[in-house]
Write a structure and sequence with these properties.
- It is a single chain.
- With 362 residues, this protein is α/β, with parallel strands linked by helices.
- The protein has twelve helices and twelve strands.
- It has helices at 47-57, 69-78, 92-103, 119-126, 144-150, 173-182, 202-215, 243-251, 260-270, 273-296, 317-326, 346-361; strands at 34-35, 86-89, 109-114, 130-135, 155-161, 188-192, 219-224, 237-241, 308-311, 329-330, 332-334, 338-342.
- The strands form three sheets. It has a seven-stranded mixed beta sheet with strand order 2-8-7-6-5-3-4, with helices on both faces. A three-stranded antiparallel beta sheet has the order 9-12-11, with helices on one face. Strands 1-10 form a two-stranded parallel ribbon.
- Helix 6 (173-182) links the parallel strand 5 (155-161) and strand 6 (188-192).
- The longest helix is centred in the C-terminal third of the chain and has 24 residues, at 273-296.
- It is globular, with a radius of gyration of 21 Å.
- The termini are far apart.
């Protein structure tokens, strides 16, 4: 027995070999003029949102809602669902963690398209589950037939990221609905729609969840305020699902999931749909411009339905990221695969196009 060990006990073996969650920055000291690595919104919260946060902060001596009920109620109205079909958390990524803890035991299989969101292998690995990565198709889209075929008796969860991060591609509504209909009813299906606001008209974004949940009691839809809603720094995500599923998600979460300031900010943001619409319009304009410009330079660009573009440049990914960094642009690099560039302001687009042009000419 050793009472004098100089190191603490090791953590669970589940922690070894997990990929780490990368930020779109090279190193930590460097400040980038163009922060296009994390798919954040380029503009600050509105005056109204900032005022709501200040007012909520004045009550910071009090605990917030036990389950984020005020926001849950507003979201249930927005999506035309019963109040007990919404759960909120400090980011949709936290809700995914809750889903896996509530539904997947160690050894269970989780199926996802790949490449997809880099947090998936981490969360699945931490839970002791086996993540089955089903390759994307030649257009960098999820491959529904292959995902369906990957389902086995051990499968507990199918994870569908649509539009997909980091490729930006989306399944057509009818193709997605066909996949949902084909997946077995005893498997939990998570539809991660972090970017849905950029893909489709406002009414569909609001109403599609209720329509799908009515057909599929095994479905969990994840949404976030971090991307189109422009509140990444306050960490607000939500899940829409059957009341029994919501109850299970609550069962694995501590109380008070969201600080009062985050509740206030998201409630205030919901009151200003015109700001969301403007942000989405600006994003689409800049996305078209960046896509067009990159294509004219001969670069491959996947068809994006999100607030970023994917350049599947393979072995050129790291050099490309380095050249962007030299131009003070942070982007996300997946070595050997491609580079993801967030759509920002018009001046961000100008800077990226100039850097791409320069690296091309050099
Ligand atoms: C950004 C992102 C999220 C995370 O959103 P948070 O609500 O900030 O946790 C979830 N899924 C995908 C695919 C994302 O890209």
């Amino acid at each position: 027995m050793n009472n004098n060990a100089s190191t603490p006990p090791p953590p669970s073996a589940r922690l070894s070999g997990l990929p780490s969650y990368g930020r779109g920055r090279v190193g930590t000291v460097r400040q980038f003029a163009h922060r296009l690595g994390s798919n954040e919104a380029p503009d600050a919260p509105s005056r109204e949102v900032q005022d709501a946060v200040a007012a909520a902060f004045a009550n910071a001596n009090r605990y917030p809602d036990l389950r984020g009920e005020t926001l849950g109620l507003a979201l249930s109205k927005r999506h035309n669902l019963a109040e007990n079909m919404v759960a909120v958390a400090a980011g949709s990524i936290v809700l995914l963690d809750q889903v896996i803890r509530a539904y997947c035991d160690p050894g269970a299989e989780i199926i996802t398209g790949w490449r997809s969101y880099e947090a998936y292998p981490i969360i699945a690995g931490l839970s002791g589950c086996v993540l089955r990565e089903v390759p994307l198709d030649a257009e960098h889209r999820l491959d529904p037939a292959a995902m369906r075929a990957a389902v086995s008796p051990k499968t507990r969860l199918v994870l569908i990221c649509n539009p997909n991060n980091p490729t930006g591609t989306a399944l057509r509504d009818d193709v997605l609905d066909a996949l949902l209909a084909e997946l077995p009813a005893d498997v939990v299906v998570v539809l991660d729609e972090a970017y849905c606001d950029f893909d489709g008209d406002e009414a569909t974004v609001r109403t599609s969840a209720a329509a799908r949940l009515a057909r599929h009691p095994n479905l969990i839809i994840l949404r976030t305020f971090s991307k189109a809603w422009g509140l990444a720094g306050l960490r607000v995500g939500y899940a829409l699902a059957h009341p029994d599923i919501i109850e299970s998600l609550h069962a694995v979460a501590p109380p008070f999931p969201l600080p009062g300031v985050a509740l206030a900010a998201s409630l205030a943001a919901l009151e200003q749909p015109e700001i969301l619409a403007n942000r989405i319009n600006g994003n689409m304009r800049e996305r078209d411009r960046l896509t067009q410009g990159a294509k004219e330079l001969g670069l491959p660009v996947a068809e994006s339905r999100a607030n970023f573009i994917w350049l599947p440049v393979g072995p050129d990914a790291e050099p490309l990221q380095a050249r962007l960094a030299d131009a003070h642009i942070a982007a996300r690099c997946f070595a050997g695969e491609g580079v993801r560039i967030t759509i920002g302001s018009a001046s961000d687009t100008d800077a990226v196009l100039a850097a791409l042009k320069k690296s091309k000419g050099a």
